[in-house]
Design a protein that fits this description.
CATH topology of the largest domain in chain A: Aspartate Aminotransferase, domain 2
Number of strands of chain A: 13
CATH class of the largest domain in chain A: Alpha Beta
Distance between the termini of chain A: 57 Å
Number of helices of chain A: 12
Strand order of the largest sheet of chain A: 2-8-7-6-5-3-4
Number of domains of chain A: 2
Largest sheet of chain A: 7 strands, mixed
Strand content of chain A: 5-15%
Largest interface: A-B, 74 and 74 residues
Oligomer: homodimer
CATH superfamily of the largest domain in chain A: Type I PLP-dependent aspartate aminotransferase-like (Major domain)
């Protein structure tokens, strides 16, 4: 048989960082110590109350299929979470439990994207988003964003890039790779523009909960980013149990769906996935307990301390943090003063400094060669060691 | 905002049986006893060694992301399973771990189906398959199958339905809703025809392991259906931990991929799902242990006893089992001697006999009104009670 993959495969890229990771593993098995700053995964284990809830469910035989949109009690718990934590009313009936935020975005684009439709996405941005869209035959259109707009699209950019073929906009707050946030006013302005232009609006909030006050603010002063759920019930909002709740491998997320589309998403979920993981859903029921939240808030404070340590340290080395990193666990650095190709730099840092970071290439085509992402998903002593190694590498 | 779902939604149907289920729950909460013969889910809990392995993994903090195609040790275990149980060599590198068999089929069609491509599927068949294909903009084309070919497509049918637009064929063995099997010779003949016509060939083997000797054969004489992996390494083979391994809610399956497409599927998995559930993968490592297999084989014998009880009992009522049900846990009955509309019949059986079954409507457009599916995922005393109730309803 001739090799004949679907045409979309030509537009879907692998994670470029995986190549570096493979090399990192080689180096490690050869006895080298590598500091991993490329990983988009919290280094904390799943909080114990969540793990215990999973074990109870498994012991109790709660491992059968659930309804396609998830356990009613988990949907209700998320609805309560929106009310109590954000003061926003989101009915449980509009909440779908999904196979991670990835599963949510798959369902959203399956429900909304027609072949040939253009969707606007910020560049740099999380690469999977445009690839998921392409899989459902939509066309991702990049809006190049930079420090001028804190790496977020603006209504003016929307109008500039909007065409007859444009079907909608996807933004992320906190954003990956930059960690920048949108204010509620900014979300409302984007939503209003989408409404005026008759486009859909999807907001990726998977790093919600991981937002930090400015370095100057006293500790314990963290506030949550505003949720797009507060900006209109016609907005699609995606969230995850992976990041703030530290349940990465469980593959669980959720999506807030505009009322009129709930039936469509349910139909798709019935057919495409049957249901999200049942043990994971039972585990997640413990995610909103005060005991769990207390653990998560301690860890959030630790992420903030890491950011506050790492950002100035990288700046001092000439790795300019041009975004305002107020969330997630990444610093997106302009490395153009030190290298004219971030991919080569990333490879060099790995080989010569034992530090793994993610080159801009993985986040789009907006000056990727000038940027490199450092994740602070590792403890401060290791971050300090990394900074020292980078200093030696750059001759500082 | 105007309601504007993607056009594909018009072609994707919900599970019609869900309406009946909602009514069943109403009746049950009103104190009525309903015998559930509509459920496509084993009534056995996940075997204890599998559950224990999951708990060990969770306690050990093994809940982080895995590689996109799954844990290397689980891929290796499946490779060993193919060698030891089927005598077929399938390298671990060709095996992808997926979010259930649904996740496997999503990846297969994402990798293979171009917009407008036609794919041939047997009708009656599992409805999600054509809806997943439609989601990736392929066009499902039904091959009506009946008792003449034991509800399986033949090479002659392939030639009859093949057009310039046809990209491939999907078959299932054991099939749902009929439980019929393909012999290795039949699989080879279909594969050869696909090769000649330059089409892809996908075989759904999610009910593998649940196959039964004829009623006359002594117990304990069950043999496995042949796997399509033995018929060529250009065949895509999908399997699941849900049915034989009784891990439904864990959402874990796998796919054997032709070598040249492994990289494509990996790229897609990286972008669309990140990885399958980590606790489920660790759980599944215990699925191939002799202790687990012993439990599963006992349960398989029980399924066979149920089939051997139920099939003649339904026949005696005039519900003709025109397929040879050698696998899965379904009997697909021709009810045309008793009713001219199986959907009305299913509703009536629920209301008046307290028996829930799935009307043909859920399996395609090939005389659905004449057919109804009974699942034997409930114990023999309950099946006997159902038969009695049906007898009273039909006045036998």
């Amino acid at each position: 048989m001739t090799y004949r993959p679907a045409r979309r495969l030509a537009d879907i890229e692998p994670f470029h960082v995986v190549e570096l990771l493979t090399r990192a593993r080689q180096l490690e098995s050869g006895g080298h110590d590598i500091i991993h700053m490329e990983v988009g995964e919290p280094d904390f284990p799943t909080p114990e109350p969540i793990a215990r809830a999973a074990i109870r469910a498994i012991e109790g035989g709660k491992t059968l299929y659930t309804q396609a949109l998830g356990l009613p009690e988990l949907r209700a718990a998320i609805s309560t979470f929106y009310r109590e934590r954000y003061g926003v009313a989101v009915p449980a009936g509009r909440i779908a439990i999904t196979n991670g935020a990835s599963g949510a975005l798959n369902l959203a684009f399956a429900a909304l994207a027609n072949p040939g439709d253009e969707w606007l996405l910020a560049d740099p941005g999380y690469p999977c988003n445009r690839h998921i869209l392409r899989t459902y035959e939509g066309c991702p259109v990049s809006i190049p964003v930079g420090p001028e707009s804190n790496f977020q699209p603006t209504p003016a950019m929307l109008r500039q890039y909007w065409t007859d073929k444009t079907a909608g906009l996807l933004v992320a707050s906190p954003a990956n790779p930059t960690g920048t946030l949108l204010t509620l006013a900014q979300i409302e302005a984007l939503a209003a523009t989408c409404r005026e232009l008759q486009g859909h609006f999807i907001v990726d909030e998977i790093y919600h909960g991981l937002t930090y006050a400015p370095k100057e603010a006293p500790e314990g002063n963290e506030t949550d980013a505003p949720t797009a759920c507060a900006a209109g019930n016609d907005i699609w909002v995606i969230n995850s149990f992976s990041k703030y709740f530290q349940m990465t491998g469980w593959r669980l997320g959720w999506m807030v769906i505009p009322e009129t589309y709930v039936r469509d998403v349910e139909k798709l979920a019935q057919n495409l996935t049957l249901c999200p993981s049942t043990p994971a859903q039972h585990a997640a029921l413990a995610a909103f307990e005060p005991e769990t939240i207390a653990i998560l808030e301690e860890r959030r404070a630790e992420f903030r301390r890491r950011r506050d340590f790492l950002a100035p340290a990288l700046e001092a080395l000439g790795l300019r943090v041009t975004a305002r990193p107020e969330g997630a666990f990444y610093l997106y650095c302009d490395c153009s003063a030190l290298s004219d190709d971030s991919y080569t730099l990333a490879r060099d840092l790995l080989e010569k400094a034992g530090v793994a970071a993610t080159p801009g290439l993985d986040f789009g085509s907006n000056a990727p060669e000038k940027h490199i992402r450092f994740a602070y998903t590792t403890q401060i002593p290791r971050l300090a060691e990394a900074v020292e190694r980078l200093g030696r590498y750059f001759g500082r």
